[in-house]
Structures are given as C-alpha cells and as structure tokens.
Design a protein that fits this description.
Blueprint (H helix, E strand, L loop, with lengths): L3 E3 L18 E6 L3 E4 L1 H4 L9 E7 L8 E6 L5 E3 L9 E8 L13 E5 L6 E4 L14 E6 L3 E2 L1 E5 L5 E4 L2 E2 L2 E6 L6
C-alpha cells in the first residue's frame, strides 16, 4: 500500500502568528481505505518540529523498502531509514535506461505498470525534480505483498513506444533497457 510523508515548516516570518518549525506527518494507509497519522507513535525525528523543505524518497540501502532524505532550512539534512519488518513482504525495484533520441537516458517521464496476480495494478512514473531542493532517485520500487512473482511489467516510454517484460521473480532490482523496435 501507499503511505504518505509530509515535511512541514512555514517560510521564515510568514505567517507571523504561526510557528516556523512544525511537526512532520506520516500517514499509514490502512487497508487502502483510510490514512492514520502514525508520526506521534513513531517518535524520533517525527516527534520534533523542523523547518522542512524538500523530501526525496528511494530504496537507499537496497532492501526493498522506501527510505527518506529530508532537507531543511537552518538544519542539516536528515536520512530516515525504513526499518519495517519485511518478513513475508516482497518487492521489485525497476531501473529504466532510455535509448531513444526522443527521450532521456534516465527515462524521465516513463510510466511503469506492474501486474501481480491477486493485486490491483500498480503504476509509477519516473520523475526528476519531485520536491523543493531534492529529487527522487531514478529507480522505482513496487511492493508485492506476499507474491513472489510479477506477471507483467508494462513500460510506456517517453517519446512513444510500449515494452512488456515478464514474468519476473520479485525481491530484486531489475534493469530494463529500452528496446528501439518498440517505438
């Protein structure tokens, strides 16, 4: 499921009646129907107010879960490593390499859809410049739940073309080069 992290902090002196440093928020997706703010129970970084500005997300340690890098005003960068118990939870990392003259090598703008039996399709887009003073890495991470296989990966490349890959085993980082004949 998709959880939501929000880095908070007012711009300096605006509005004057509100605190500049504010608590970050972490909302856990509960059964795909509601979000619950779990930041107070998590403690640590999430229990202290900050002047947050930008957030980048990605699997920094290659273990299949999403870690966060947060930049602030007047405070060092913070790295939040996701230490969630991963037993029984599978994943797939997808790194695209564009080869078309109409697109970019990092495949910015590509749309990737995963099909896994018994699960709703998951769709991600390769983006750059996703937050103030920060950008997510180019690798996309998909949660597979208790499934160990992906039935199909469909890539819609920038500049046109669709490429299908699969079936693929989970729990790995897969690098996919754009096939020129799929343009």
């Amino acid at each position: 499921d998709e959880d939501v992290f929000v880095s908070n902090g007012h711009v300096i002196r605006h509005p004057s009646e509100a605190p500049v440093r504010q608590l970050p928020l972490l909302f856990e997706n509960t059964q795909g129907r509601r979000f619950a703010n779990v930041a107070p129970a998590a403690g640590g970084y999430l229990a202290k107010p900050h002047m947050g500005r930008g957030v980048a997300r990605g699997d920094l340690d290659g273990d299949g879960d999403i870690d966060l890098v947060i930049c602030h005003t007047n405070e060092p960068v913070s790295v939040l490593e996701n230490l969630t118990d991963r037993r029984g939870r599978h994943w797939l990392g997808v790194r695209l390499i564009g080869t078309s003259p109409e697109g970019s090598r990092d495949a910015a703008g590509a749309i990737v859809t995963l099909r896994v039996a018994g699960m709703p399709n998951q769709t991600r887009q390769v983006k750059s410049g996703t937050s103030y003073a920060s950008s997510n890495g180019p690798r996309l991470t998909f949660g597979l739940g208790d499934s160990t296989k992906v039935d199909l990966i469909r890539i819609r490349w920038p500049g046109g073309g669709v490429q299908d890959v699969g079936p693929i085993d989970g729990d790995q980082i897969l690098v996919i080069r754009q096939e020129i004949n799929n343009r």
